[in-house]
Prior knowledge:
The protein is mainly alpha-helical and about 220 residues long. The chain is about 75% helix and about 0% strand.
Amino acid sequence: MDSPKLEDLTKEKNMWHILWAAKCIHAPLWQQTLFFLCVVAVLIYVCLTDTDPASLAVRLRSCLGLAFNSAVALLGFLLAGFTFFASFGDKSLFLHSAKRSHDKFNEMSWLKYFMFTFVKTIFLYFAFVILSLFTLIVGSKDGPISEMLRVVDDKWEPAFRHFVVSAGYVIFLPFFVFLLTILSSFIYNVYHVTMLSIQWEWAKQDKEKYDHEGE
C-alpha cells in the first residue's frame, strides 16, 4: 500500500474531479435499503391511489415546497460547518490525516476521505435545491408543464398527467428521505474528526511531557 503523496492533495482540479474521486464512497447499506423501500412505497401509492391527478399535483407542490425550504436551511448549516472546519481546523491534524491512508480506500488519505464526504453531501443538497426549485417553477399551477399538458389529446391527457405527477413523487420524496439519512453520516464524520483532533492533541501533550522529562 503506497502512502499518500504531497501532489495528491491538489490532484482534483474542479468539482467534477472531486465527485469522480469520491464515487467509491458509498452510502451505508441501511441508507440504500431505506431509499429502495421509499421508492417502492411511493410507487405502490401512486399506482394504487384513486386520487385525481390535480389533487396529487397540489399535494406534491406542498411537499416539495416544504422539502425545498428544509433543504435550503440544512444546506446553509452544512456550508457554514464545512467552512468553519476547513478554515479553523487544526492544520497539524490535517497534515497528519493527509499522510495516513484510509483503512478501506487504500489510495485515499483520511483527509481526502473527510473532505470528499463533506463535499459530496453538500453537492447532493445543492443538487436537490436546484432541481426542486426548477420543478416548482415549471410545475406551478398554469406553469409550463400545465401548458404542455393542455396540448395532449383529451383521451390521453389524464393518464399522461398522472404519469408526470407520479414521476415527481417517485423522484423527489425518496431523494429527500435519502438526504435526511446522509446527515447521520455527516454528523458521524464531524464526531470522528473531533475525537481524532482530541486524540492528536493528547498525543502531542504526552510527547511534550515525555521529552521534557527526558531532558
